[in-house]
Design brief:
Blueprint (H helix, E strand, L loop, with lengths): L2 E2 L2 E2 L6 H4 L8 H11 L12 H14 L3 H18 L2 H7 L14 H4 L12
Antiparallel strand pairs: 1-2
Length: 123
């Protein structure tokens, strides 16, 4: 089983696809890593040799922020915006769309379920 950056890679997938299961690695970065390490992208994860896994692990640890470190960095960036009171920070704090989308209608994913405005029954 190949475990890289705290993630178990799926055994049946090709390594160029399997690396994408690590948070912070997408298609381009996966190709770049494979090129640096000299591992063929069409190799299945289950067919990797131990030295290939070690090369991949060392390259990723040395050159890229992935998984926990990257999540922490992103969270701290949002927290910094909220602390200094920028417009984007205020939108994050109020759970509203941050990147200019309309919010009068739509934006349900960000705002959550509609609050019902009911009225008392008249007798």
């Amino acid at each position: 089983m190949a475990r890289i950056a705290g993630v178990d890679l799926p055994m049946a997938k090709r390594i160029d696809v399997g690396l994408r299961y690590i948070f912070g690695i997408g298609p381009a970065r996966a190709r770049n890593i494979l090129q640096k390490t000299g591992v063929a992208g069409e190799t299945r994860v289950k067919d990797l040799r131990e030295e290939d896994i070690v090369k991949l692990r060392e390259t990723i640890d040395r050159e890229y922020d992935v998984e926990g470190d990257l999540r922490k960095e992103l969270t701290m960036g949002v927290k910094r915006l909220m602390d200094i009171g920028t417009y984007r920070g205020l939108r994050h704090r109020k759970s509203l769309p941050v990147r200019g989308q309309r919010s009068k209608t739509n934006a349900r994913t960000r705002k959550g379920k509609r609050a019902s405005i009911g009225r008392a029954k008249s007798k």
